[in-house]
Amino acid sequence: MKKKKIIRGLHGFYTLLCFIFFYAPVAVMVVYSFNQSKANMVWQGFTTQWYEKLMGDTELWTVFGTTLFIAFATTIIATVVGTMGAIGYKKDKGKIGKMISNSIYLPIVVPEIVLAVATFMVFNQTGISLGVPAIIIGNTTICLPYVYITVKSRLVGMDPSIEEASLDLGADRVYTLFHIMIPQIIPGIMSGAFMSFSLALDELIITSFLADAGTTTLPMKVYSMMKKGVSPEINALTTIVLAVALIGILAFPLVGMIKEIKAKRVRAKLKDL
């Protein structure tokens, strides 16, 4: 019993250290977004002036808007293409299907700098101009495998008899896809979409290679400030983004709880009848 208590205590301590390691920098960022000092080195008092300046900083909001547009466009393309690819090759066990399935893992294994140089060379040789469209294509290359993997893992756990039953009952493949298969794999699709969005939102290396002179994203903006020091307005902006993300995380289980309560009420009414 003593050994079990010691082991549990060590597990708890290790878990606490992991949480501190991951979330302490985030906490420092949030705290220093309210710091009076412009240099993020010494605490000089509480203030909200950086949030006020952020609201009037049109240049920073333009950069953030460009970043969001690229992230949303990348997420949509990667989610649609990755989902269709996973569905299309879930039963293909031939050599071509295996080759395509194995090659989809390359963007994860290959170093990102190699992908950035290769993508830049392809665009340069084909005459495709750099800018936002090129960045979206490059980011999609990175995000696509994650959507493919998450959706395919969901398809593996799906009961194939459901799809067969739909086809046997007279439904065509399009109806079966949108009304039977996609509702079954929607958790995998959403997981891949959220992962793609987070990856595209903070992508720096490929974006730097494929951006033209007039395109700047938030990671590029922050990286350019590293030599002179990151402005507290960036801390304020990232704190707002973090708050929105936390609200979304908390809202998701809340919606699930509301649905459960409604379902219980419906069941109770049916029992009364």
Keywords:
79% helix; 0% strand; 12 helices; 273 residues
Look at the helices and sheets and give the structural class. Answer: mainly alpha
**Mean pLDDT metric:** 83
User: Low-confidence parts, pLDDT < 50 over ≥5 residues?
Assistant: none
Strand content: under 5%
CA(first)-CA(last) distance = 53 Å
Provide the succession of SSEs.
HHHHHHHHHHHH
Number of discrete helical segments: 12
Kindly provide the radius of gyration, computed on alpha-carbon positions and rounded to a whole number of angstroms: 24 Å
Largest sheet: none
* Portion of residues within helices: over 70%
The gross shape turns out to be: globular
What is the number of strand segments?
0
Provide structural commentary.
With 273 residues, this protein is mainly α. It has 12 helices and no strands. The longest helix is centred in the last third of the chain and has 41 residues, at 232-272. It is globular, with a radius of gyration of 24 Å. The protein starts with a helix and ends with a helix. The mean pLDDT is 83.
